[in-house]
Amino acid sequence: TQYFLDRIEAGKQWNAYLDVNAHLSLEQAFKADKLISAGKAGKLTGIPVAHKDVFVTRGWKSTAASKILAGYQSPFDATVVSNLGIPDENNPHGAGMVCLGKTNMDEFAMGSSNENSAYGPVLNPWNAAYVAGGSSGGSAAAVAAGLAPIATGTDTGGSIRQPAAFCGLTGIKPSYGRVSRYGMIAYASSLDQAGPMGKSAEDCALVLSAMSSHDQRDSTSLADSGEDYGRYLNQSWQEASTNPTKPLEGLRIGLPKEFFADGLASDVAKSVNEAAKTLEGLGAKLVEVSLPKTKLSIPVYYVLAPAEASSNLSRFDGVRYGHRASEYKDLGDMYQKSRTEGFGAEVRRRILIGTYVLCHGYYDAYYLQAQKIRRIIAADFQAAFKECDVILGPVAPDVAWRLGEKSKDPVQMYLEDIYTLSTNLAGLPAMSAPCGFNANNLPIGMQLIGNYFSEARLLQVAHQYQ
Ligand code: GLN
Q1: Is 430 contained in some domain?
Q2: Any keyword Acetylation (predicted)?
Q3: Cβ(112) to ligand 1 under 6 A?
Q4: Which of 460, 459, 448, 457 is nearest to 423 (CA)?
Q5: Pairing state between β 430-437 and 170-173
Q6: Is residue 150 part of a domain?
Q7: Closest Cα to atom 10, ligand 1: which residue?
Q8: Does residue 241 register a pLDDT over 90?
Q9: 86-98 as b/e, with b when 16 or more CB fall inside 10 Å?
Q10: What value of ipTM does the predicted structure carry?
C-alpha cells in the first residue's frame, strides 16, 4: 500500500486520482496485515485497489467528477466497495482489499475520453498528449501507470472496455445484474454495470468474483451472482479435449461483419484480425456473423441513456447534496442556479436531450422507438449466438486520440462508441483485452462479447490468448 501511495504521489501528472487519503489506506492495510497474521486471509487480502469516483465510499470524497458533488462525503460504502473491502462485523464477507483512493472520470460517467471531468482530463500514460479514454479513464491510467494494481470501473456504453483498450489493459463488463448498483452514482440505470480493470484476465476474474453478489438493496441484482469467474481459466474449451496445443478446440468465434466495416482504422483492424488468427491457432473456429443494427445502437443509446440520466440527476437539486448557489430569489431560482453552476456542459446537454425525448408528444417518437429497437438489437445478438459461442471485434474504431481533438464536437465523440453500446443495450457481458500497438506505440484492444452469464468463458478465452 505504501509503495502505491508513493507512486500516486510521484505520478500526479496523469491526473488519475481525485481523492487520496494515505492515513485511511494505511489503516486498512494494517487491518489486512492482522488478518494475514491470524491466518484469516483470502486470495485478495491486503491487495490495494483504486475505486472509480462513481462508487460512494466512507472516508474518501465521492463526487462522480462533478462540481455539484464537490466535497461530498458519503455516510456509507457502495456494495462494490464493501464487497472488496476489509471485513468487519457489518461486512463479514469483505475480500480484504485496501482502498487506495478515488479515480478521475468523466462527469457522471458521461463521455468517451475523460475530458468531461470537472477536475481536468486524465492523460494517457502511454503518451501524455493523448486521452486515456472514458469514462473510467482515471482507473485505466492508474493501473497503466502503476499507481494501482487493479481498479474498479463502470460501463454504461463502453466505459470499462474503451479506456482499458486505450491504456493497454484488460477490463470486463459483466452481464447486467451481476454486480450490485447500490451506492454507484446512477447514470442510466438500465445500462449501468460495474467491473474490474486490470493487467490480465486472471486478475479481473479474481476481483470480479469478489465484486459480484446478490444484493437486496438493488432490485435488478441477480439472485445467483456469486461465482468463481476464474474457474475455466486454465481449462480447455471442451472438457474432454486431449490436445494441449489446441485448448480452444470446439470454440466458435463470430466476427460480426458490421464491426469490420467502414470507419474502422486499418491498424486496429489488422491487430484484431491477427488476434483472431492467434485464437484460430489455439483451436478456435472463425465464422462470420451479422449484427445488422450495429449503427442504430448510437441513436438508440443516445436517446435512452440521456432519458434515464435526466431522471436520475433530478436528485441533485442543491438541497440534499453538494453545491448550492450562494444567491437566489426563491426555491425555483435556487434549483436552477445550483444546477447550472454545478453541472458541466455535457451533463447539461444530456439532461436537455433526456428531458426532451421524455416530453409528452416526443416520447412516442423517440423514447418508445428507441426501446423497440433496443429489443431488436438484443434479438440480433441471440441470432448471432446460434452460430458462434463468443463474438470478437474491435473495442473502438481507433486508438486513443489527441487531447482536445474531439471535445468540440459531441457527435464525433458519440460515434466512437459504436462497437460498445449494443452490448449494454442488450445487457450482455463483454470484455476488452490488449492485442497490439499502432505505429505510434498506442495500445489497441480487442473486444470479446458473450451470451448472458458467460463471463467465466470470456475470461477463459482472453486468458488463453494472453
Ligand atoms: N461514452 C458513453 C457515454 O458517454 C458511455 C459512457 C459509459 O459507459 N459510462 O455515455
Answers
A1: no
A2: no
A3: yes
A4: 448
A5: antiparallel
A6: yes
A7: 110
A8: no
A9: bbeeeeeebbbbb
A10: 0.98
Task: From the CA of 191, give the closest atom in ligand 1.
Answer: 8
Strands lying side by side in the sheet with 194-198 = 17-19, 98-103, 48-52, 151-154, 194-198, 170-173, 430-437, 443-450, 390-394, 252-256, 285-289
User: 424 alpha carbon to ligand 1 midpoint, in Å?
Assistant: 10
Number of structural domains in the chain: 1
Is residue 386 domain-resident? no
C-alpha cell read off for 373: 429497437
In 3-state terms, what secondary structure has residue 276? helix
C-alpha cell at 224: 445467483
What separation in Å is there between the alpha carbon of 174 and the centre of ligand 1?
16
Residues 81, 345: Cα–Cα separation, whole Å:
29
CATH number at residue 152: 3.90.1300.10
- Judge whether 434 lies within some domain: no
Mean pLDDT of 205-230: 93
- Residues constituting the chain: 466
Cβ neighbours of residue 193 closer than 8 Å, sequence gap 6 or more: 154, 155, 156, 173, 174, 175, 176, 177, 178, 179, 181, 424
Q: Is the CB of 171 under 6 A from ligand 1?
A: no
- Which cell numbers in the block locate residue 5? 501511495
Query: Nearest-5° angle of CA 365, CA 371, CA 376?
Result: 120
- pLDDT tens track for 255-288: 999 999 989 999 999 999 999 999 999 999 999 9
Residue 253 and residue 261: Cα distance in Å, rounded? Answer: 18
CA of 51 to the centre of ligand 1 (A): 17
**What is the structure's pLDDT at 224?**
78
In whole angstroms, give the CA distance from residue 430 to residue 158: 9
Q: Is 155 a pocket residue for ligand 1 (Cβ < 6 Å)?
A: yes
Contacts 24+ apart (CB under 8 A), 31-34: 31/86, 32/86, 32/96, 32/97, 32/98
- The SS3 of residue 212 is coil
Q: For residue 94, what are the domain limits?
A: 2-211
Write the Ramachandran bin of 96: left for phi over 0, alpha for psi from -120 to 50, otherwise beta.
left
Q: Which three cell numbers stand for residue 70?
A: 464537490
Asked if 72 and 57 count as a contact pair (C-beta separation under 8 A), the reply is no
